[in-house]
Design a protein that fits this description.
The chain has an 8-stranded mixed β-barrel with strand order 13-14-16-17-18-19-20-21, surrounded by 6 helices. The chain is built from 21 helices and 22 strands. Strand 20, helix 20 and strand 21 form a beta-alpha-beta unit. Helix 6 packs across helix 10. The N and C termini lie far apart (121 Å). The chain is elongated, with a radius of gyration of 43 Å. It is α/β, with parallel strands linked by helices.
């Protein structure tokens, strides 16, 4: 072959085979594919060809005269110039040992005769692609080495400048670390730094039997109300003031941290017993009860505090904080502005609450809830005039779970929205069914409690409209019960929603009237149709027969504002008589009926009981 006519832009393939027909066929196929193809019938011709022009790929037959393909391949691999050239063996030998030997001597692939032309082309193409990639890598490595040498001199020259930069960055890093470990608003240590200090204290307690400490978890009561009503800037100012006042209750060795929002953590070190931590908590509660005089407002604030004793048996510092947090929630449940000391039983209760929450989530998916109905009696006619829808949970293992047990968890987790909406939908559907039955008195109302969380949804009114439309009920027969806590979440926004509901002729009832702290202040501003007197006041009527407690005043307030009064929790004939004498409009309670399942309602209506 005239090597001067080889196209340098084409890949060069050397075929070594003592069979001329094989050489001719393979050469023809590969040439048509655009490769330079050279042929060698024996070892000497192959050596000459490689010494003249190094091929990109070698196709090598094993059965060769004088020196077989294995020997030729070994020779090429031993020669530095040809060592990296890929060799594909072509042979009629199909034994596994032959193939293994071929790969051992340096072959990259093995094609068995008789071969498929397409297979040969694909294997050739793949090996050439790999070869090109290897050569490119080698080229890039050489270029990289040159660049490294080039840059070394520049780096040496820049070393002095770099050292100065390092010093500057170390100062900046120290500053950033300080920022990362402290709260940007109050300047107090943050959660990360607090956990580090807790970890140090815990390790020290494990090493020194005389060292003892305690952790306080503090949450500001009703901070959200101040923040939402007066604005975030006032809220920030209040948090700074709270931080200063808390710091004044501590000694320098103690750590005060802002854990997030209106939550603070306190580490009290080197104490002898839990009473010292309790004294600090009492002092904090007393200090926070003093009015905060901010730049534009005077604000009253208190806090709930959980206390966890620094037992050396704790495995992680986070568990200390967790238990103090658990104790804080217990303090908050006891009426706020209080402290509570953690005990191990509380952790078990917390786990049980978590399990209950998980069960509650599954209950929503599995539709384990059902609605019971308690009749509401007109004290004018003595007959049933409506029902209150009360949700029940039929747990697959525990049976019926009391709403007192699961409703607070549902409220806290936000699951109450799905439950509340389902109850409203179910109650309206049931009302629609009952209204088409001949035993149902006209009119018959259905009363449903609305959670405070529902009012955070921007489309609440639209949802209620949709439920009314789907069930084709008269909205005048729907009564929605709302507690004072709903109103206090956001007075102005809630008022707008209630007015929209009132425009639809839906009846609005203030539930648990008298148990809140702002009833008379805001009652006249909201379009309520009735006040529901809490059963605790009804119960006290018999305890204080001379003036019957606050019930007469509550009924009087309702009448003076053009509202009806509904007494709940009526259990005795005497209570019923007292309520009638006070001109109470409606009543419900066990005297009339316990909450019953929906299939029993029509039977009760058909019986037409009279009280």
């Amino acid at each position: 072959m005239n090597y001067e006519h080889l196209d340098p832009d084409k890949k060069d393939i050397l075929i070594i085979d003592d069979m001329a027909d094989n050489l001719r066929v393979l050469s023809s196929i590969l040439t048509r594919e655009g490769y330079n193809v050279r042929k060698a019938l024996n070892w000497q011709m192959a050596l000459t060809a490689t010494q003249t022009v190094l091929p990109d790929l070698i196709l090598l037959d094993i059965m060769m005269p004088e020196v077989d393909g294995y020997g030729i391949c070994q020779t090429f691999k031993a020669w530095e110039l040809t060592a990296d050239i890929p060799v594909i063996f072509i042979s009629a030998l199909d034994d596994v040992l032959d193939k293994v030997k071929a790969f051992k001597v340096g072959g990259v692939d093995y094609i068995t005769k008789p071969f498929e032309f397409q297979e040969v082309l694909v294997r050739v193409k793949n090996q050439l692609a790999l070869r090109s990639a290897q050569l490119e890598i080698l080229k890039l490595n050489v270029e990289l080495e040159d660049r490294v040498k080039e840059r070394t001199l520049d780096l040496e020259k820049a070393l002095e400048e770099l050292q100065e930069e390092i010093n500057s960055r170390q100062k900046l890093q120290s500053k950033l670390l300080d920022i990362a470990l402290h709260d940007s608003l109050t300047g107090l240590p943050n959660r990360v730094l607090f956990i580090r200090r807790l970890e140090y204290a815990l390790n020290r307690a494990k090493q020194e039997s005389s060292y003892q400490f305690a952790v306080l978890f503090l949450d500001c009561d009703r901070f959200k109300v101040v923040n939402d009503s007066l604005g975030h800037s006032v809220g920030d100012e209040l948090l700074i003031a709270i931080g200063r006042r808390l710091q004044s209750c501590l000694v320098p060795i103690d750590t005060l941290a802002r854990l997030g929002g209106d939550e603070f953590g306190i580490l009290i070190e080197n104490i002898t017993d839990i009473n010292i931590a309790i004294e600090v908590a009492q002092q904090i509660i007393q200090q926070l009860s003093v009015t905060f005089k901010l730049s534009r407002y005077e604000v009253f604030m208190n806090a709930s505090i959980g206390i966890s004793w620094g037992n050396k048996d704790y495995e992680r510092p986070e568990y200390l904080l967790r238990d103090a947090d658990t104790a804080m929630y217990r303090a908050k449940a006891q009426g706020r502005g209080k402290y509570h000391v953690f005990n191990p039983a509380m952790h078990q209760e917390a786990i049980q609450l978590l399990e209950l929450e998980n069960d509650l989530r599954r209950a929503i998916q599995r539709r384990e809830f059902l609605v019971y109905y308690q009749p509401i009696i007109s004290l004018t006619t003595g007959r049933i005039c409506g029902f209150e829808a009360l949700v029940r949970w039929r747990h697959p293992i525990r049976g019926l779970v009391s709403p007192i047990e699961f409703i607070p968890i549902a409220e806290e987790t936000g699951l109450i929205n799905a439950i509340n909406t389902w109850v409203l939908q179910s109650a309206c559907h049931q009302l629609s069914v009952w209204q088409h039955h001949p035993v149902t008195p006209e009119p018959l109302t259905i009363s449903v409690n609305l959670s405070a969380r529902l009012f955070l949804q921007t489309n609440l009114v639209e949802q209620i409209d949709q439920i009314i439309y789907e069930n084709k009920i008269n909205p005048e027969y729907l009564e929605l019960e709302i507690t004072e806590s709903v109103i206090m979440e956001n007075i102005y926004a809630i008022k707008i929603i209630l007015e929209q509901l009132k425009q639809r002729k839906i009846k609005l009832i203030m539930d648990d009237f008298g148990t809140g702290y702002s009833s008379l202040s805001y009652l006249h501003s909201f379009p309520f149709d009735a006040l529901k007197i809490d059963q605790s006041f009804v119960k006290r009527m018999q305890e204080n027969k001379e003036n019957m407690g606050l019930v007469p005043a509550m009924i009087s307030i309702a009448n003076s504002m053009g509202m009806s009064a509904i007494a709940e929790g009526v259990e005795t004939e005497e209570q019923l008589a007292q309520l009638r004498s006070l001109n109470c409009n409606f009543a419900q309670g066990y005297l009339f009926s316990q909450p019953i399942e929906q299939q029993l309602v029509l039977k009760l209506l058909a019986a037409a009981p009279q009280w």
